[in-house]
Amino acid sequence: MLGLQYMLARTQWWRPERLREHQFRQLDQLLAHAVETVPYYRERASAYGCHGRQRPLSPEHWRQFPRLTRSAIRQYGRLGLLASEVISPGHGRVMENTTSGSTGAPVVTQQTELSHLLFQATVLRETRRMRAAAWLSSAAPRQSL
To answer: Is residue 95 part of a domain?
Structure first.
């Protein structure tokens, strides 16, 4: 967790261009993995220009992709079409995650131990940032009326 906090602290100061380039390299790898190993994306790949593409993913190309809706997650997830058929052993075991269902019916998704750790690291970073901001605002000199 400490290593992830260090990485998040370092990358937050990158120039916007460098950060976007890094994010799109990661997103390109994720998309390639999804097209290869997730039935839902494999079936739709050619319709969105993903299948067999030789170019890196661009922001323009990414904007063309349809967003996965809550109803699609429920429908295709139930059929097992949104789960990767190949999980790297380094990502740990696969766990089920269920939302509270406060907007209607709950949504069931899967995550690995690694994705859960990354989520926890992000939440911890934001919590620390918000506490620091609250402390700074409470420590600031106040003008009396």
So the answer is: no
